[in-house]
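TA notes, week 10

Several of you asked for a full example with nothing omitted. So below is the full record: structure tokens for the whole chain, then the designed sequence directly under it. When grading your own attempts, check the secondary structure regions first.
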């Protein structure tokens, strides 16, 4: 065995020998380090002179065969004499030589731990290594069994073993359970080639963490000899080339292992990264923490905000450092690296937003944005502007370049009106930024909202309707429907009981803001208390009474917009005559027994019938429905079609008395059966709104209490699926009112507008407003007074329809509005 000194080239890899003088274990050298040889000679003295302990510190230890001192006589080394303990607070490895080797024939041992040499102490065939660093470590045990003389001075190591991943605990003696067999050494040979070069001389080939190495010859051949048995990594290095590596090279006793050819690629430069502020993407300070990293062969770096690195100098790699940007805003920082060959990487980039306005992360979020298109006001109302504490200026605009905007006092603003008259409704985006006393500006924050607005409906050629037609309680008092391109309205002129009433209808196109008249030819329907449904592409009207309230009718009519004509409804098996009845349209249910049918129920005649009927327009036929379990008799009940079932609620009890009631029932046409609605719903009332939604619920709100003694400002939601009631939140709700107009709009929301109180006074404008209720969030959003209303601007008895994007409302007095919700 040879222990030699060598100079090796340092790289940024702890596995490779450092650039320093050190002692390492190798079978390649020709001579011993004399100090180390003397030390090992001392250790070998045991077999030849009989010392009882292999201590190397010169202390005298007992000799079981007699005598003391380092040179005591006898042959006690090969006799077990007790186990020395580890030094206090130190770590220790204990191993023993395999029994198939005579301990006295092994002339010396060296154990290596990553370039640190540890010399054993011995008792019998037990060997001890003190001062071992704690952790999982590989041991290299080397020994010599040659006896060419009375000492080891002329010997070389010819045996060795790599013990992988030995777990060493701090301050604990760790014993390897199995005896160590020291087989004879092996070797590793192979060939290395350099990309783009015909010769491969000068390539260093080494086993990391040891002193076993070799250099390739001109042909790239190499041979590492004296390698302990075990699994090793083999590294290949040469300046200007990428490091090569073989893993898990297995060395066997006495064998030369061929590992094949290693092709080393030309080094094209380092790899790396840069991270700002831990990768958060935002910083409240202009000074940020910069973290960089590069591959081991990189030694220099440049850092700059300029991608071209103008003015930047090479500097040693610093993995963590501060960097200060000159001003806030969106920033980028570039870093590149170079290795010892002068090869540079491409720039690595990291982005960050420098926002010194830490409390202005979301400066404003419009909870309500609305504006009228026409004068006198078209202002956006922007609420909830949060001003940073260090801001001295604020700028707001509707363009990202802040065109025409000026800095203004940033005092907290609860409701900021943006003074601009927009020509149309729709999506608008606002931009806001702040600046501090040094002129630094915050990030630009934008908020987008749909401009909720009103626009007037033309009255040119509008139908001459002076009063709405009263429908079921809680329903819009006029008849209206949306065809997909037009709103249809139908009503009458003059007083209901004057005897001079006549019909009038019109179709309004919101795209052209124009009206056309509807034909009245062939209409045989009534004026008052009839039932009407929109059947997808036609109106169906049935029952009711004439202007005097008598006679009652048991007939109906169907209007087809495409043909602009009316036709009668068949009367075979039709319901008995009645008025103030209720009806729903089933639409497409997927069930041929129930789909595309009008279902009528209840009402009032000379008695109060509790029966109902299903009408099928395609076959012009009637079918009576079950009465078992039907609700109590009533008139003016509200009905809705939800989850393929008809829900009946409220209305008036039978006369005499005729008081509002708050009970109902659910009819399932699939099973032709009734079930009772859950109790605990709204209090008895009339003049309320009753709106089925697309989410399977029904919205009930407002109205008058019994006898009209008070106006009500509360409501509840009925869940058809669970047959249960839940209260509508009162926070933010509009003023209590009755006979408001309401309908379902997008997102399962409910639009509510207008209404009256006990005084029936609209002139004050107190009820010329409304609100939108969102059941999913339980929140109300107020809708302001429509300053652009045409006609008389009446605040009650509007008929209304939802187009899919807008609400069109038409008043009995001949005026109307279009509302685009936000």
């Amino acid at each position: 065995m040879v222990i030699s000194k060598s100079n090796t080239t340092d790289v940024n890899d702890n596995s490779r020998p450092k650039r320093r003088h050190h002692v390492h274990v190798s079978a390649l050298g020709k001579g011993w380090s004399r100090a180390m040889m003397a030390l090992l000679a001392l250790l070998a003295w045991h077999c030849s002179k009989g010392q009882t302990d292999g201590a190397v510190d010169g202390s005298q230890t007992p000799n079981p065969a007699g005598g003391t001192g380092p040179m005591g006589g006898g042959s006690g080394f090969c006799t077990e004499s007790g186990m020395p303990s580890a030094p206090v607070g130190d770590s220790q490895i204990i191993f023993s030589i395999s029994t198939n080797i005579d301990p006295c024939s092994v002339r010396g041992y060296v154990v290596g731990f990553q370039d640190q040499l540890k010399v054993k102490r011995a008792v019998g065939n037990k060997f001890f290594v003190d001062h071992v660093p704690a952790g999982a470590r590989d041991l290299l045990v080397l020994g010599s069994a040659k006896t060419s003389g009375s000492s080891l001075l002329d010997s070389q190591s010819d045996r060795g073993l790599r013990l992988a991943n030995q777990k060493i605990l701090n301050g604990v003696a760790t014993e390897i359970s199995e005896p160590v067999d020291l087989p004879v050494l092996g070797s590793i040979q192979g060939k290395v080639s350099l990309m783009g070069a015909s010769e491969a001389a000068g390539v260093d080939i080494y086993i990391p963490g040891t002193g076993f190495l070799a250099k390739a010859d001109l042909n790239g051949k190499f041979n590492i000899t004296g390698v302990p048995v075990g699994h090793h990594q083999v590294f290949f290095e040469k300046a200007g080339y990428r490091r090569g590596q073989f893993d898990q090279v297995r060395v066997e006793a006495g064998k030369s292992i061929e590992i094949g050819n290693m092709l080393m690629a030309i080094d094209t430069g380092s790899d790396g990264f840069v991270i700002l502020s831990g990768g958060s993407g935002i910083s409240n300070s202009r000074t940020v923490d910069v973290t960089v990293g590069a591959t081991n062969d990189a030694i220099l770096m440049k850092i700059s905000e300029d991608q071209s690195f103008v003015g930047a100098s090479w500097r040693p790699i610093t993995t963590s450092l501060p960097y200060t940007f000159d001003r806030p805003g969106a920033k980028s920082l570039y870093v590149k690296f170079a290795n010892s060959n002068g090869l540079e990487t491409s720039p690595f980039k990291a982005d960050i937003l420098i926002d010194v306005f830490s409390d202005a992360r979301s400066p404003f979020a419009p909870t309500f944005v609305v504006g009228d298109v026409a004068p006198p006001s078209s202002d956006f109302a922007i609420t909830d502007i949060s001003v940073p504490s260090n801001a001295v200026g604020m700028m707001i605009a509707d363009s990202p370049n802040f065109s025409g905007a000026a800095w203004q006092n940033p005092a907290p603003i609860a409701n900021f009106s943006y003074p601009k008259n927009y020509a149309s409704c729709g999506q608008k985006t606002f931009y806001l930024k702040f600046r501090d006393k040094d002129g630094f500006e915050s990030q630009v924050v934008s908020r987008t909202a749909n401009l909720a607005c009103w626009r007037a409906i033309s009255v040119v050629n509008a139908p001459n309707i002076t009063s709405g037609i009263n429908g079921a309680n809680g329903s819009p008092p006029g008849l209206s429907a949306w065809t997909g391109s037009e709103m249809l309205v139908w009503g009458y002129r003059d007083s209901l009981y004057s005897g001079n009433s006549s019909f009038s209808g019109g179709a309004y196109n919101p795209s052209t803001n124009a009206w056309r008249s509807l034909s009245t030819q062939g209409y045989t329907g009534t004026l008052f208390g009839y039932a009407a449904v929109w059947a997808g592409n036609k109106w169906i009207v049935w029952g009711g009474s004439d202007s005097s309230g008598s006679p009652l009718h048991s007939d109906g009519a169907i209007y087809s917009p495409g043909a602009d004509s009316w036709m009668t409804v068949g009367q075979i098996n039709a319901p008995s005559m009645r008025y103030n009845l209720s009806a729903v349209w089933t639409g497409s249910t997927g069930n041929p027994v129930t789909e595309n049918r009008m279902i009528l129920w209840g009402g009032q005649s000379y008695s109060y019938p509790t029966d109902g009927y299903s009408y099928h327009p395609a076959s012009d036929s009637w079918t009576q429905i079950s009465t078992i379990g039907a609700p109590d008799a009533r008139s003016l009940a509200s009905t809705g079609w939800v989850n393929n079932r008809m829900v009946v609620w409220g209305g008036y009890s039978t006369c005499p008395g005729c008081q509002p009631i708050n009970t109902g029932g659910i009819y399932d046409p699939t099973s032709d059966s009734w079930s009772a609605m859950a109790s605990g719903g709204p209090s008895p009332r009339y003049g309320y709104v009753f709106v089925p939604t697309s989410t399977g619920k029904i919205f009930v709100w407002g109205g008058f209490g019994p006898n009209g003694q008070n106006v009500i400002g509360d409501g509840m939601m009925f869940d058809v699926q669970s047959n249960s009631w839940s209260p509508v939140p009162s926070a933010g709700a509009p003023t209590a009112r009755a006979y408001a107009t309401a309908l379902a709009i997008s997102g399962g929301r409910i639009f509510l507008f207008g209404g009256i109180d006990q005084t029936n006074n609209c002139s004050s404008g107190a009820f010329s407003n409304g609100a939108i209720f969102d059941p999913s969030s339980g929140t109300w959003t107020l809708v302001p007074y429509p300053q652009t209303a045409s006609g008389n601007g009446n605040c009650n008895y509007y008929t209304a329809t939802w187009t899919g994007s807008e609400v069109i409302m038409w008043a009995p007095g001949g005026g109307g509005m279009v509302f685009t919700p936000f």
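The first helix runs from residue 34 to 49. Use that as a sanity check on your answer.
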